[in-house]
Amino acid sequence: MCVRHKQNKQTKMAVIRTRKELFSWTDDEVELLLNVTLEYKTTKIQDNVDWESCKHKYTEIGDLFQAHIRGPKLRKISLTRRTQFHRASLQRS
Asked: What superkingdom does the record give (predicted)?
């Protein structure tokens, strides 16, 4: 195997690992995203705006999600659930 082919393979594997990390969501994160989206939708409806036609809805929802996820409560819950999941998987082994 030549050096160039080996480097390309390592790069591809790094990209695959990164993708898996990016698309790995906890139950709390999914629940938070759904709640933030519902909150955004409700706010727009109260303002008599068709929320689906907003050009920047994904950016605004993403910003709201990031603001909420940085809060200490969600980090604590996520860590607790991950720890519980890890312990349960160890007990099954």
From this structure: Eukaryota
pLDDT in tens, the chain (93 residues): 555 555 666 677 676 666 666 667 788 888 989 999 999 999 999 999 998 888 899 999 999 988 888 765 555 555 555 445 445 445 554
pTM comes to: 0.53
Q: Is residue 2 part of a domain?
A: no
Residue 15 lies in a domain: no
C-alpha 23: how far from its chain's center? 7
**How far is residue 84's CA from residue 38's CA, in Å, rounded to a whole number?**
29
- DSSP string for 12-54: HHHHHHHHHHHT---HHHHHHHHHHHHHHHHHHHHTT--GGG-
- Dist. CA 15–CA 53, nearest whole Å: 34
Asked whether residue 66 is assigned to any structural domain, the reply reads: yes
